[in-house]
Amino acid sequence: MDQGDPVEGPYGPMGSPFAPPVKRSVTIAGHQTAISLEPVFWDALRLAAQRADLPLNALIAQIDVMRMAATTPPNLASAIRCWLFAGVDRQDNN
Predict the structure, then answer these.
(1) Does residue 29 lie within any of the structural domains?
(2) At 33, which CATH number?
(3) Which tens digit of pLDDT belongs to each residue from 33-89?
(4) pLDDT for 13-42, tens place per residue?
(5) Which of 11, 40, 49, 90 has the fewest Cβ atoms within 10 angstroms?
(6) pTM of the full structure
(7) Structural domain of residue 75, as residue ranges?
(8) CB 58, CB 45: distance < 8 Å
């Protein structure tokens, strides 16, 4: 996984907030899984992991546990997007 990729420019490495999804493999709960997210979400997720002082896989694993606790669990990519947005929403309300 490209965990250490630098963020370039105001919209990350792809140069646009509308760049198509990028599929990456991550290891969570001892197995590999592929996740497709737009680059802007990969950038935000990487930043959130850095702020939490966690490896990216560990943060994704935490989100996965929260997702599975939901009454109707969404797919992992959707859960990651929602988790990131909820974090932004919490920051805006503080």
Answers:
(1) yes
(2) 1.10.3990.20
(3) 999 999 999 999 999 999 999 999 999 999 999 999 999 999 999 999 999 999 876
(4) 556 778 899 999 999 989 999 999 999 999
(5) 90
(6) 0.78
(7) 22-92
(8) no
Indicate whether 71 belongs to any domain. yes
DSSP the chain: --TTPPP-STT-TTSSTTPPPEEEEEEETTEEEEEEE-HHHHHHHHHHHHHTT--HHHHHHHHHHHHHTSSSPPPHHHHHHHHHHHHHHHHHT-
Distance (Å) of CA 9 to CA 36, 41, 77: 21, 15, 24
Q: Is 58 contained in some domain?
A: yes
Domain contains 6 = no
Q: How far apart are CA 9 and CA 25, in angstroms?
A: 24
